[in-house]
Amino acid sequence: MEIKQDAWTIDRLFNDRSRINLNPQWQRGPAWKPSRQVLLIDSILRGMDIPKVYLRGRQGDVVYSHDAVDGQQRLRAIWEFKSGNLTLDYAERLPDIGNLPIFGLKYAQLDQALRSRFDNFEVSIGEILNATNDDISALFARLQMGVPLNPAELRNAQLLPLNRIMASIAESHQFFQNSRISPSRSKHLDYLTHGFAVLAHGSNRDIKAPDLQRLVAQFGPNDTDAILELASRTGDVLNVLDGVNEELNFRITQKWIFVDLFWLISQRHDDGAEVDAVKLAESYRHFDQLRSAHNAAPEALLSARGRTSRLNRHLYDYIIAFKSQGGLKENLKVRNEALRAFCPDIDARN
Question: What is the pTM of this model?
Answer without folding.
Answer: 0.58
